[in-house]
Amino acid sequence: TFVVTDNCIKCKYTDCVEVCPVDCFYEGPNFLVIDPDECIDCALCEPECPAQAIFSEDEVPADQQQFIELNVELSEKWRDNNITEMKDKADDAEEWDGVPDKLQYLEK
Ligand code: SF4
Ligand code: F3S
């Protein structure tokens, strides 16, 4: 499966959702997640993310391992917010792109 990680938080560019053949992205207030049970590992979304926030599960950086479980948990919590079409990124997305350790800002 593929996993959305830290740098998506407060950027949420949403380019990723346009290419997913199985529509398995779910949206929260300032972050998206992938439902690992639905992801078919096609890898199409990974290069689409301007923030380079999407990784194959086995390539998630060591300091971001908690995002594997967060994608599981939040794809259930945000089940009613399936997102399949690109929308406007966060107003200050560029300012937040690359800021480390944004997990503290994650809104659930
Ligand atoms: Fe969707 Fe493919 Fe990305 Fe999985 S790897 S979330 S199926 S685009
Ligand atoms: Fe997030 Fe990148 Fe998609 S910033 S919304 S994972 S395009």
UniProtKB/TrEMBL annotation:
UniProt KW Transport keyword: yes
InterPro entries with a match to the protein in the record: 4Fe4S_Fe-S-bd, 4Fe4S_Fe_S_CS, 7Fe_ferredoxin, Fd_C, FdxA, RnfB_subfamily
Names of required cofactors: [4Fe-4S] cluster; [3Fe-4S] cluster
Keywords, alphabetical: 3Fe-4S, 4Fe-4S, Electron transport, Iron, Iron-sulfur, Metal-binding, Repeat, Transport
Residue ranges of every copy of the 4Fe-4S ferredoxin-type domain listed in the record: 1-29, 30-59
Record's keyword annotation contains Membrane: no
GO molecular function: 3 iron, 4 sulfur cluster binding; 4 iron, 4 sulfur cluster binding; electron transfer activity; metal ion binding
Residues of the signal peptide: none
PANTHER family to which the protein is assigned, alphabetical: FERREDOXIN, OXIDOREDUCTASE
Function: Ferredoxins are iron-sulfur proteins that transfer electrons in a wide variety of metabolic reactions.
Protein name: Ferredoxin
Organism: Oleispira antarctica RB-8
Classification lineage: Bacteria, Pseudomonadati, Pseudomonadota, Gammaproteobacteria, Oceanospirillales
